[in-house]
UniProtKB/TrEMBL annotation:
This is Phosphotransferase. It comes from the Bacteria. It comes from Pseudoalteromonas ulvae. Residues 22-240 form the Aminoglycoside phosphotransferase domain. One of its GO terms (molecular function) is transferase activity. It holds the Pfam family APH. Keywords: Transferase.
Amino acid sequence: MNQRFDALQQFVHANCMGAHFTLEPITGDASFRRYYRLISAEQCGIVMDSDPSRVNNQPFVEYNQVFVEQGLRLPHILSADEAHGFFLLEDLGQTHLADLVNEPQIIKYYQQLIDLIPLIAKTPAVNSMKRYDTDFVNVELTIFKEWLVETFLEMALSHDEYEMWQAVTSLLTDNLLKQPQVTVHRDYHSRNLMFCQQQWVVIDYQDAVTGPVTYDLVSLLRDCYHQLPAEQFEVLFDYGYQALTSVGLLDGASKVEFTRWFDLVGLQRHLKAAGIFTRLAQRDHKPGYLSAILPTMSYITEISARYIELSALHQWLVKHIIPKLQEQL
């Protein structure tokens, strides 16, 4: 780590042309990347340390170009040493959507962000962009089973529970694949959307995939870190449906069909997220995400209660998983 930080400082030194500088750590990222705020007399910026032995940096660079060409505002890459995984990015300040959720104009802010989703969806897929296919969904859902249930709670699935889990996986996979497939940001939520100079800037975009058309709207409106009040959610859900319909992205899907697509994508996403939060705590020693698990699980139980096909999952979660989680947490 010391050797890597020395190399990072040399990268910064070269970009500051010898001027004195300081690097202030920025905490809170869930990935293997590390971020620092660069402060010097000559310039400011954000320094990203993204070790190429642990992170594939090609999408970060490649997707930046295609999203910007599509008309989206992303952080400018000011300088890069891709071989070592060092990047100097513009400093966009510190205001995220998460900081503005109690503002009087919050509905307008969300509507502005919903209006950007079609731009993301219509971004041409590049060769390195993965697809949400059956294997991809299985890998994501396995995170919940392995990390939350088996590792964190130390519970083994019975034969009947395993059969139930396979049926749920099949149902959620079918729902994902039957929707129109578009480019999705995949983490389009309140901590990855920044407000800078009266513009919305999209960050943490490097995990974009080709996937279901409802995914980014789910990420925004069913945010693991902020629960919208019911009245706000209904207004914004309707706005999202109309926004996607008006640009022809829903292939004529009715509101009822769209609602089911949305709900089941949200269920899949939140099962994955709950598993990731426990993995971050156990594997990556980042316990700060544990507080998001129970709010995430409440959404899962809310949706699973609405659909008869998910009644067995709902009962398992309510009777066995959530009580055990409450004890552990």
